[in-house]
Design goal:
about 25% helix, about 170 residues, two-stranded antiparallel sheet, binds flavin-adenine dinucleotide, 2 domains, mainly alpha, 3 helices
Length: about 170
């Protein structure tokens, strides 16, 4: 008897108590853009390039290895184009997983550089103290001033930068 897709999904859900999820954080080097959307609002356009995808795929393999080392009986890669389940002796297949970013479940939560700081007004929005080039009294003190990907969680850096620049405003 053939199972319907709903039956397959229901069957898979019964396994959720035995699932452990780990994520990998990958320091991406790809660059995106902030453009005007059709409704005039700003929209972020960003996709991972091949070099980042190779790092990302290598990270997925490492995560699978940690699961197997911890005794996992199977790996659920959640990568479009890969089998739903890999047995521990099959995880090498992840080395050939697709390099299309759309095949993966991923999030991007650290955006930088929308109003990047720098000396040259032609290549930056504000100077090294957050003062917007050419506008008296207008300051930027948030993640957008950071010129590149920090590679680690940025909140402390952003808060320290905002505090320092606010103090400097009073000088
Ligand atoms: C899911 C998720 C998890 C994260 N986890 C971590 C973590 O664990 N550790 C870490 O360090 N970082 C984490 N970050 C990143 C961190 O939250 C951001 O990098 C940081 O909050 C950016 O600070 P910001 O001041 O630049 O911008 P925001 O915190 O986004 O502040 C911008 C503010 O401007 C306001 N605003 C927008 N438009 C206007 C307008 N037109 N007029 C007036 N106000 C406006 C917004 O309402 C908002 O309050 C995470 C981010 C996400 C999305």
């Amino acid at each position: 008897m053939r199972c319907t897709q709903e039956q397959v999904k229901a069957e898979r859900l019964t396994e959720f108590r035995h699932i452990a999820m780990r994520v990998q954080a990958c320091r991406a080097e790809s660059v995106g853009e902030v453009k005007s959307a059709l409704d005039g609002k700003p929209a972020v356009h960003y996709t991972l390039d091949r070099a980042d995808m190779e790092r990302f795929r290598a990270g997925m393999y490492l995560v699978a290895q940690t699961h197997v080392a911890a005794g996992a009986r199977a790996i659920l890669p959640s990568i479009f184009g890969m089998p739903y389940k890999l047995l521990p002796n099959e995880i090498d297949k992840l080395k050939d997983a697709p390099l299309d970013p759309r095949a993966y479940v991923s999030i991007l939560s650290h955006l930088f550089g929308g109003c990047t700081m720098g000396k040259d007004p032609a290549r930056s929005v504000c100077d090294g103290r957050g003062r917007v080039h050419g506008y008296q009294g207008l300051h930027i003190a948030d993640a957008s001033a950071i010129p590149s990907n920090l590679g680690v969680n940025p909140q402390h850096t952003i808060m320290a930068m905002a505090r320092l620049w606010a103090q400097q405003m009073l000088d």
